[in-house]
Each structure stands twice: as C-alpha cells, then as structure tokens.
Design goal:
By secondary structure, the chain is mainly alpha-helical. The protein is built from 13 helices and three strands.
Length: about 325
C-alpha cells in the first residue's frame, strides 16, 4: 500500500488534482489487464468531487462510499477499551458476561451498549437533575460528525484516550474516584475540547491550507449559525467567494446545510466537531425579520427544527 501521495503536492492544489486524476485514469485503463492484481484508490469525497475526468459518471460502477455508522463506532470504542485487562475484568465483574475483544466484535448492538454503559455513565448529567441530559453515547457520536454527516473513528479513539487521561487527573486532584462509572461526563467534556482543537489544526488547516483565510473568518464568532447572505459578505474579499466558497467549505465538512440540500439551503451551521476548536459560541440571539417558511425551510420527516442554540447540557457549556 502507498499512502499519503497527496502530501507530495500539498502546496499546489491544482497539481494535486491533476496527479490524482491521472492516477484514476491509469486505473481505469489498465486495472483490468492484471488477473492477480487489483488496484484500489481511497479518496476523500471532497477530492473526488473536484476531479475533472472525462465520462466521470462511468466510474460509478467502480466506486463505493465508505461511512462509519453509530453502532460500529461504539463497537470500535468498546473493543479498544476492553483491551486493557483492568477494564475487561471490571466489565465482566459488573455484567457477569465475557467481555473480551472477540466478545465485543461478535456481540450484538445491545450487548455492546451494555458494556459501554458499564464504562461510561448513562447520561451527561453534571450531577444535578439528569432529566434533560443526553445519553452519553448520543452525546459522543453527535460531536464527531462533520457537516457532510461523516463520522471519524480516529477522533473517537483519541477522545477515549484523552478522557482516560483527564479522568486520572481529576481523580488525583479530588483524591478519590467519585464517578459511579470508570469515565465521568466531566472527563468526556474536558477531553472533547482538545479533540475539537486537534481536528481543526490537523485536518482543516493541514489538509486545506488554501482555505486558511476562510476558516479564520469563523474564529471567535458568537454564533455557529450563518445565513447564506452573511457567508457571501464574509467571503467577499477572499478567493473563492460566493457559492463557490460555500461549496468548498461544505466539502471540508465545516458547514452543515439546514435545508434540503447545499444549493437550496438558506442557513448553515458549523458542526460541534469544530465549534470549540475555532473558539465559537452560541451566545448571540439573532434577530431577523419574521418570514413565512417555505417548504425548503421546513424540517424533513424525523428532523428537528434548526434553532440558533440548543439547551445547555451542563451549567456552563452550550452543546
């Protein structure tokens, strides 16, 4: 396997596109000529969409989209956790069932959740009433999704490792382990702050250096929601700007359309994955003229009405 070929052209996005386009054309032209060799190219969605390839639609039969789903992500996290002998023994003692890696991998979603909630507390309550506190698994998964709906196993594992480190620090400061489970909500919240910053630095700014100025316009904003016209104004002095800039930012995962699709959406939100890393809050209450809603603005079946800020999950944190 050859990895990170794109880093050869990290400073020249046009040369990068040309090189990957040539690689795909080579695959299409010669891929079927070898009986015992099968070529595979793994590309980010944003890179593939920007490639200019003749008869690009013909590649549909050659490609498949890879996405991590919630149940698999939880299984990955729990399987990594029980590699530790102490965690595995603790889970087996509490649950009364075998809880090694193979049991997790082969186990049902319900069994994986049972082990998950042996390690983590049921909700992200801060110790007060837990009636409105979100379930811990939902809280974690919601914060590891970008604007295109992609989830990231690397950040999930990183969050788990940082939560363990933070829990040990909390225990040392308090002189005892006060949580009812191995990992407390406090440890998760404080660990996620670092994950968001890490993701911004090592993905947004590292993988898309040509969009650095676009990312910077969001830093320190007192709202994570933006109207399309507002984004036009923010991007006006930059290149690209207008709808092209919105598309480029969406392709990085930084913008979530709050409508049927990217082109028809009038509002966009920066996902929780990048909110803290960019120093953003939801303190601003936007006052805009009352408008009747079109069908495009109405939430689809099963979706919640977008709002400027969700209810606080603890005493100091919004989302």
């Amino acid at each position: 396997m050859l990895d990170k070929l794109d880093l050869l052209f990290v400073e020249d996005i046009e040369k990068l596109r040309a090189a990957i386009t040539g690689l795909i054309q080579l695959l299409v032209q010669y891929g079927s000529q070898f009986k015992n060799i099968h070529f595979k190219i793994f590309l980010r969605n944003d890179i593939f969409r920007q490639l200019h390839i003749v008869n690009k639609s013909h590649l549909v039969s050659y490609s498949t989209e890879m996405r991590w789903r919630g149940p698999l992500l939880l299984k990955l996290l729990v399987a990594r956790a029980v590699v530790d002998p102490f965690v595995r023994e603790y889970c087996e003692e509490v649950c009364g069932e075998k809880s090694d890696v193979s049991a997790i991998i082969l186990g049902s979603d319900d069994f994986v959740k049972k082990i998950f909630f042996t390690i983590f507390e049921p909700t992200m309550s801060n110790g007060a009433s837990s009636d409105n506190a979100p379930p811990t698994d939902e809280w974690i998964l919601k914060r590891l999704v970008d604007g295109m709906g992609n989830s990231f196993p690397r950040e999930l594992i990183h969050l788990g490792n940082k939560a363990v480190e933070r829990q040990r620090e909390i225990d040392r400061m308090e002189g005892d382990h006060t949580s009812t489970h191995l990992i407390s909500p406090r440890a998760l919240r404080e660990a996620f702050e670092g994950i968001s910053t890490y993701r911004c630095d090592t993905y947004l700014y590292s993988e898309f250096p040509h969009l650095k100025q676009h990312f910077d316009v969001f830093r320190g904003s007192d709202s994570t929601m933006f109207h399309r016209e507002e984004l036009y104004m923010l991007f006006q002095p930059l290149s690209p700007n207008g709808d092209e800039a919105i598309r480029a930012l969406y392709d990085t995962g930084l913008l979530t359309p709050l409508g049927k699709n990217l082109d028809s959406s009038k509002k966009f939100r920066v996902p929780l994955l990048y909110k803290i890393g960019l120093g953003m809050t939801d303190h601003r209450t936007r006052s805009r003229p009352s408008q009747s809603k079109t069908n495009e603005d109405r939430p689809r079946n099963g979706e919640r009405e977008p709002i400027d800020s969700e209810e606080p999950i603890d005493g100091h944190e919004m989302n």
